[in-house]
Write a structure and sequence with these properties.
Layout lengths: L1 E6 L2 H10 L3 E4 L12 H18 L5 E5 L7 H13 L4 E4 L1 H4 L5 H9 L3 E6 L9 H10 L4 E4 L8 H4 L2 H13 L3 E5 L7 H5 L5 E4 L15 H14 L1
Parallel strand pairs: 1-2, 1-8, 2-3, 3-4, 4-5, 5-6, 6-7, 7-8
Length: 235
């Protein structure tokens, strides 16, 4: 099991890289759930990751980015995605408000057909719906690279919103169709052992690594290091 950490600055990227975090997620953590960082800041962070790769010969580091909680038009979504691919982002995360909208699906299908790695982000409520297995299978048929669940409101942790059995069913459904599956949403260090038992491909963190567990605050180095230490012991 790997860990994903959302970063919003070059300094945070340097911190998580030095700690050994393999999945680096670019996100504006000041508002929204999947708000996009500016292109200039995203470029600076991607360049930092590339430099680290060259200097350390590190392999297995993946850069992902969000493109916003909503989009006004197909052209806007196309720009948000392609502009980030051009600077070196490797995986794009799409919220359910976008990937499940029929208006965006022709564009998304084209991008998937070109081999773009997309992660479909589900809302917690979707994990409780009867049609979840069918939706996960549809994502696999469309050639999505991965699927994850993340909370939109960070006041409560994912484990306090979705029953453990539903999380287990989600992970199993995704793995049965070879989707790279992740769990995220207000997770803290205390949740690692519990969720690792479900064997997701990764757990996503932000607020639980920040001062006061407030995602808009900076990452705390000691918590990032403890995260990697705990995961290494378990996995």
């Amino acid at each position: 099991m790997q860990v994903l950490v959302s970063v919003n600055s070059v300094a945070e990227a340097q911190l998580v890289l030095s700690a050994g975090v393999p999945l680096i997620d670019l996100k504006d953590t000041s508002h929204g759930a999947l708000a996009a960082l500016t292109l200039d800041l995203s470029t600076a962070i991607v360049d930092t990751v590339h430099q680290y790769r060259q200097q350390s010969a590190a392999t297995g580091i993946v850069i992902s980015a969000t493109v916003g909680d909503h989009c006004e038009a197909v052209d806007e979504l196309m720009h948000m995605i392609t502009s980030r691919l051009q600077i070196g982002v490797e995986v794009i995360k799409l919220p359910e408000t976008i990937w499940a909208d029929p208006g965006y699906q022709p564009l998304i299908a084209t991008l998937l057909g070109q081999g773009l790695k997309l992660i479909a982000v589900l809302n917690p409520a979707s994990l409780l719906a009867d049609e979840l297995p069918a939706r996960v299978q549809w994502l696999a048929q469309q050639h999505y690279w991965g699927v994850m669940v993340d909370t939109t409101q960070k006041a409560k942790a994912l484990v306090d919103i979705v029953p453990f059995a539903a999380l287990a069913d989600f992970v199993q459904a995704a793995k049965s169709v070879q989707l790279f599956v992740g769990l995220a949403g207000g997770l803290s260090l205390a949740h690692i052992e519990l969720l690792a038992g479900l064997q997701p491909d990764y757990l996503g963190f932000r607020s639980g690594l920040c001062e006061g567990e407030q995602r808009a605050q900076a990452l705390l180095p000691e918590r990032v290091r403890e995260l990697i230490s705990r995961v290494s012991e378990i996995c």
